[in-house]
Specification:
elongated; Tetrahydropterin Synthase, Chain A; 5-stranded mixed sheet; 34% helix; 5 strands
Length: 139
């Protein structure tokens, strides 16, 4: 069975690669390369999968998942300028593709410590940047 939990955070970023000229960045990223950055109200879905526990009747303890996501993602991402405030984006462009990979890395790094045993497993992450831009990553 799958359980998906939804979270929200607001963050700003600038899509800009130091390896490209200003003109190349504008050509590649358009208005998203604005020197002053821009922001999004992100929607993050985290999906866990596993059997329903006979003891608890749950696939995943929701409060524990909430705590993990808060500690590993929301506390660092919410109301931040990703380019400057997160070490992972000092050299990587904070595209949604890179953001979702960083989120996955952070969750995986603490998953087994948080959920010892075989179940639940992190099945996937979905990140909605805008109404038209949604990114999915299956673990």
């Amino acid at each position: 069975m799958r359980v998906t939990r939804r979270y929200r955070f607001a963050a700003s970023h600038r899509l800009h690669s130091a390896a490209l000229t200003e003109d190349e960045n504008r050509e590649l990223y358009g208005k998203c390369s604005n020197p002053y950055g821009h922001g999004h109200d992100y929607v993050l879905d985290v999906t866990a999968v596993g059997p329903v526990s006979e003891l608890s009747g749950q696939v995943v303890h929701v409060a524990t998942l909430d705590r993990l996501v808060s500690e590993q993602v929301l506390n660092d991402f919410d109301h931040r300028y990703l380019n400057a405030d997160l070490g992972e984006f000092k050299s990587a462009v904070p595209t949604s593709e890179n953001i979702i990979r960083v989120i996955e890395d952070r969750l995986i790094a603490r998953w087994r410590e948080t959920f010892p045993g075989e179940w639940p497993r992190l099945e996937g992450i979905r990140l909605r940047e805008t109404k038209r831009n949604v990114f999915e990553l299956k673990s």
